[in-house]
Every structure is written in C-alpha cells, then in structure tokens.
Amino acid sequence: MKARIVRIALASLAGLAIAAGIAWWQVKNAETVATSGTASVGGPFQLTDHTGKAVTDADFRGRHMLVYFGYTFCPDVCPTELSTMTVGLDRIGPLADKVQPVFISVDPQRDTVAHLAEYVKLFHPRLTGLTGTPEQVRAAAKAYRVYYAKAPGSGDSPDYLMDHSSFLYLMGPQGNFVTVYPAGTTPDRLAEDLKKRLAG
Ligand code: NI
What is the DSSP letter of 45? Predict the structure, then answer.
C-alpha cells in the first residue's frame, strides 16, 4: 500500500515537473504559442460521452475546458478532485458558464457509458464524462501527459485499483493549454485563479 502511494506520488511529481516546465516554457514563448496555436499539453481526442455520443476535442471549442483524468472506482483522489472542480466552479458564479468541466476515464474496461452517466451526476451538473476504447483513452491520456496503469498486485480481481496522475488542466477556447492545478488545490484557490483568468 505504502509502495503504491509512493509510486503515485513520484509519478505525480514527475508529471508536475513536466507540467511546470511546460507552463514556464509557454510563458517564455507566449508570443509564439499565441500565434502558432500549438500546445504541448492537450490535443486531438476521439471519445464517447456519458450519453453515448461520439465526441472529439473540436466539439469543445469556444469554451474553456477543465479536464480531469481518473476513474469512477477511484476510492479517494478522483472524487476529491472532482469535488474541488465542482465547488470551485460554483464559487465563480456566472463566469463558470465559460468553462466545460470534463472527466476522462483511464479505466474504459469498467467505465462504461452507463456507469459514467451515473457517476457524473454526483458532481457538477454540467460535468461531461468521457470514455472510449483502450486505444482512444491511451491517445487522449498521452496528449495530456497523463500517466495511468493498473495497480500492481491487483491480479485478476474485478476490484482492481488504477494508479494515475492527478491534475486539473485548464484549456483555452481553442483547445490550447492554459494552466494546470495540481492535486490538493483547494476550491478557493481554484476559484480565485479561474476568476482572474476568465474575467474580462
Ligand atoms: Ni483516482
């Protein structure tokens, strides 16, 4: 158990270091990024939403996306982060309309459309749940630099756990990377930052 936590922590730290590096790079190259429209985090994806509709990243253009990768059977981190997302959005009032909250499953084997539909209801009323084939999920996670794997020692148990990095990504209306909020960001901190970025 300890080893697993340490492993997740290390994977998260590595991911955070990458994200911080990218954020730094993007600030330094803001001019280039703005004109070229390229993003180092995020990118094209093809998935299925919790209503069974096939969607791509292009369907989310025009609004910011707050993206979280996780899995519905997650006992702790995912529900905490999705609550933070929900409370944070609730605290910014009408500005929240500029943001589409998105939950992308890293456990397509168990996260069926029907299961996702039940799960997203527990959080923000506009939360979109996305799942897909293992290949589609792998491609989406790769685009967002998200690490995930079945936890070692799960064997063939249907109650397996997933190790996964835990970040809340804010993407811009053109699908561009804006910023990343590490696990443990408080709803207040999230709301404060979102307000600053979305106002005006
Ligand atoms: Ni989780």
Answer: -
